[in-house]
Design brief:
The protein is α/β, with parallel strands linked by helices. The protein is built from nine helices and five strands. It starts with 8 loop residues before the first strand and ends with a helix.
Length: 246
Amino acid sequence: MIKINPLSTLYVGIDVSSKSNYVCALDFYKNKYINSSFANNQPGAEELALKILECLKEHPDINTVVAALEFTSVYSIHIANYLSSCEELMHFKPYVFVLNPKCTANYKKSYIGLGKSDPIDAFVIADYARAGNIESEPWRGSQFLALKRLTRHRLHLVECMTREKTYLVSNLYLKFSELQMLEGDEQPFCDIYGATSSSVLMEYLSPEEIIDSSEEDLIAFLAEKSRNRIKDIGKTADLLKKAARV
């Protein structure tokens, strides 16, 4: 958690939407310095930064900026990136926090009869920061986006593998149904999607060919395809022939 002097900090609450960002800026005593809307684009972000700078110049006792906004899909990323890396604000040590909306929603319940509007939501976010409730780390855009894309790419690969395995199971059932249904000690292979199992399915055109194959040839085939990694290769060959006979 960052250490700041709350009495010399400007708390900027930003209510994000796709087209605009409503901003409320408070000091520790809840004096409002900014209470207006800015476009959610580059010119709007630059205008907000200038407005914050003007406020800081008018109040020299304030030397730190804490900006807080709720995570709002992709709409909160640009403004968070801009404020956290804005060169004009670097002298004032800007800290940008992207919050879980549930946190601010629960904090809002502490106010009785508070309505729902962009100015009110921006005020609640700013006051949430002013009250010292933020426990997350400051925004780091590049790390966040890299981790997000990596996580989503991994999920994409998992979903692709799952889809392909499901498709394979349907074909496996048509060609060698018993192999797909066997479980536990009755299953010849620990992984029916592995290299050895795939070689059996690709090079033996039917279960009958496995039955007709001599035990020596089948063992030699399994040894070659598994690179001698099967502990009890004779048992595996017997189980494979047994499955082929069903």
